[in-house]
Specification:
The chain is built from 21 helices and 9 strands. With 528 residues, it is mainly alpha-helical. The chain has a 3-stranded antiparallel sheet with strand order 7-6-8. A two-stranded antiparallel sheet has the order 1-2. β1 (9-10) and β2 (19-20) form a beta hairpin.
Length: 528
C-alpha cells in the first residue's frame, strides 16, 4: 500500500477557484479551476490530499500549544531574554483574540473545511470507481467532522459551512449553536464510517472506518451519550483491526509508524526536499546553545533552539502522578542535563533517564517529552508522526462509558485484561486496578487517561468534557504563583499579577479578532 505523504492541491475556503499547495505544484496556478479540475479519481485524490495538509502545520505547533501546554500536564521554561507571547500566553491563561496560535488554529480548521466542502459537493457527479469514490468522500467527511469537532471544543459555536461559498457574502455567517455544530459532526462522522474501508484495506496514513468510528465515539463521550459511545466504540474493538502493542515505547518509534494500535495519526517525513517534516521535538527540548549535542545531528553545532525551545515541558505534578514502576514514565519523559549559561540557555551535555534521577552538583537538568525524541539527520527535520487516536484510547473510552452506566465490574476489564491481548495496565508493568464503585473507578480512569495519553493533546479537552477544568486549572495556577521556581521560573522572577488566574470564561478560546473584523455577524466569547 502507498503511504499518503505527497500533499497536492490546496482548495481555498469559500471560493470556486483554487490554488496549488506549496507541497506539490501540479499545474500552473492560472490553469486550475473548479471547471477543469474535479473530473476524475486522480483529481479528487489530489484534492483530498490537500485537505490533510493543514493538519501537519497544526500538530507541529498549535495543537500541542493549545491542547497540552494549556493544561496542568506541561508548562514552559521561562527565558527572560526571549519570549513568544503566542506560545506562552495560553500557558498563563493570558491568550487574547490576537494570539497567533489561536488565529492559526481557527483558520486551519476552516481551510480543511473549505477544501472538504468542495470535494463533497463535486464528487457524486464524477464518473470513476465506486469503491475509490466512497473512500475519498468518506475521508473528506471525516476531515470536515474532525475539524468542526476541534473548533466546537475550543471555541464553542462557530459558523457552520457545509457547501462551497461561491460569492463573497456567503462566506460570512453568524455562529451556529453548539448543538447545531455537534449535529453536523455526528452526521458527517456517521456517513464517513459507512463509506470508509477498514484500516487493512485503506492506504497507509489515510482515515479509515475505525478513524471515523473513534471520532464518533469521542463525540458521544463529550455529549455524555454513554450508550451510543459504548455501541460505536465496541464496533472498533470487534473489527479485529487493532490491538495494543506489547511495548509502550514502540508506539512512537519512527520505524513503526501506523502500527496495529494506531487508528489515526498525522504523517510527517524528515526528507528536506518534501517540506513535510516535523520539528516539535526542538520546541519541547529545553533552551539550548547546542541542540546537536543532544540530537546527534549535523552540522554540529546546529542552530540554537533558544528562539522557540523550552515549550511543553512536563510539570512536576504530572511526573509525580506516575505510579512507582510505571514503564510509561521512562518511555515518555527524559532529562536533559548541562550547565546553565549567563543567558539562561542550557549548555547541554547529555540525556538521562528520569527514573530515580538526581543531578550531580553544579548540573542543571530539565525534563522533556522523550516519546518524540528519535534519531534524525538534519536539524529541525524530524520523522516523528503525531498520534491522534490510538486503540488504547478506545479501551479507555469504553471503560469510562460503561462505568458511567453503572457497570464498574465490566468497565474495569478494559483497564486490566484486554481479552487475551496486552492490557493497558499490564504493559505498563502495573498491577490490575482493584474492583471499585462507580465514583472511585471514574477517578482511576481519569488518572489512567492522563498517564497513558500524556503529551498527545488529550489532557485539556479531557478536563473540559469532564467538568474539571476550573477546579484543576485554578489549583494549578495557584501552585505556580506560590512557587514559580518549581515550574522552571528563574530565581527571583515572578509571573505578572494577572497570570495564572483561571476562570470559567477561559474554558473557551477567543474568536480571532481578524475574523470578527471581517465578519460583523460574529460575536466574541465572554471574557475577551
Amino acid at each position: 500500500m502507498k503511504t499518503i505523504f505527497n500533499i497536492a492541491i490546496s482548495i481555498a475556503l469559500g471560493c470556486s477557484c483554487a490554488s496549488c499547495s506549496d507541497f506539490l505544484n501540479l499545474t500552473p496556478y492560472s490553469e486550475i479551476t473548479a471547471e477543469n479540475f474535479y473530473q476524475n479519481e486522480e483529481d479528487f485524490r489530489q484534492a483530498v490530499n490537500g485537505a490533510y495538509e493543514p493538519l501537519q502545520n497544526m500538530y507541529n505547533t498549535e495543537e500541542w500549544n493549545l491542547g497540552e501546554a494549556k493544561s496542568d500536564n506541561t508548562t514552559y521554561i521561562i527565558h527572560i531574554a526571549k519570549s513568544s507571547l503566542d506560545g506562552e500566553d495560553p500557558d498563563q491563561f493570558l491568550e487574547t483574540s490576537t494570539n497567533g496560535n489561536v488565529g492559526t488554529k481557527y483558520n486551519n480548521c476552516y481551510v480543511i473545511i473549505g477544501r472538504c466542502n468542495r470535494i463533497i459537493s463535486e464528487i457524486d457527479q464524477a464518473d470513476f470507481d465506486a469503491e475509490a469514490k466512497n473512500s475519498l468522500k468518506g475521508q473528506a467527511l471525516f476531515l470536515r467532522a474532525f475539524s468542526y469537532f476541534n473548533l466546537v471544543q475550543y471555541f464553542g459555536g462557530v459558523p457552520l459551512h457545509t457547501t462551497p461559498s461561491t460569492v463573497y457574502e456567503e462566506a460570512f455567517k453568524p455562529r451556529a449553536s453548539v448543538d447545531e455544530v455537534y449535529e453536523q459532526i455526528i452526521k458527517d462522522a456517521q456517513e464517513a464510517s459507512d463509506l470508509l474501508p477498514v484500516k487493512s484495506r485503506q492506504e497507509i496514513g489515510r482515515a479509515s472506518k475505525g478513524s471515523a468510528q473513534t471520532l464518533l465515539g469521542n463525540v458521544y463521550m463529550v455529549l455524555k451519550r454513554w450508550a451510543e459511545a459504548e455501541q460505536t466504540l465496541k464496533e472498533v474493538v470487534s473489527s479485529g483491526e487493532y490491538e495494543l502493542l506489547a511495548d509502550y515505547g514502540s508506539i512512537y518509534s519512527i520505524s513503526n509508524k501506523n502500527h496495529k494500535e494506531s487508528i489515526f495519526e498525522i504523517q510527517y517525513m524528515q526528507d528536506a526536499s518534501l517540506g513535510q517534516q516535523s520539528d516539535f521535538i526542538y520546541r519541547f527540548l529545553p533552551y539550548m546553545t547546542n541542540p546537536s549535542a543532544i540530537t546527534g545531528t549535523t552540522p554540529n553545532p546546529c542552530p540554537s533552539n533558544v528562539d522557540h525551545g523550552g515549550f511543553n515541558t512536563p510539570t512536576i505534578d504530572l511526573i509525580n502522578a506516575y505510579e512507582k514502576g510505571d514503564k510509561r514514565l521512562d518511555a515518555s519523559i527524559g532529562m536533559v542535563e548541562g550547565k546553565l549559561t549567563d543567558s539562561y540557555a542550557l549548555d547541554a551535555t547529555g540525556v538521562k533517564s528520569i527514573v530515580d534521577y538526581e543531578p550531580a552538583p553544579g548540573i542543571t537538568a530539565y525534563p522533556f517529552i522523550k516519546k518524540y525524541f528519535h534519531e534524525h539527520i538534519k536539524p529541525y527535520y524530524t520523522d516523528d508522526n503525531w498520534p491522534v487516536y490510538r486503540y488504547a484510547e478506545v479501551l479507555l473510552f469504553l471503560a469510562e462509558a460503561i462505568n458511567e452506566q453503572n457497570r464498574p465490574d465490566e468497565a474495569i476489564h478494559y483497564l486490566n485484561n484486554t481479552f487475551g491481548q496486552a492490557s493497558i495496565r499490564g504493559r505498563a508493568g502495573l498491577a490490575p486496578v482493584k474492583s471499585q464503585n462507580v465514583d472511585a473507578l471514574r477517578e482511576s480512569i481519569y488518572q489512567e487517561r492522563r498517564i497513558e495519553l500524556a503529551f498527545e493533546n488529550k489532557r485539556w479537552t479531557d478536563l473540559l468534557r469532564t467538568g474539571r477544568a476550573v477546579e484543576v486549572m485554578t489549583r494549578h495556577g495557584q501552585k505556580i504563583k506560590a512557587n514559580p521556581e518549581s515550574y522552571y521560573w528563574p530565581d527571583g522572577v515572578q509571573p505578572v499579577a494577572n497570570a495564572y488566574l483561571f476562570n470559567p470564561d477561559k474554558c473557551l478560546l477567543p474568536i480571532p479578532l481578524r475574523e470578527i473584523d471581517l465578519n460583523s455577524e460574529l460575536k466574541q466569547n465572554p471574557g475577551y
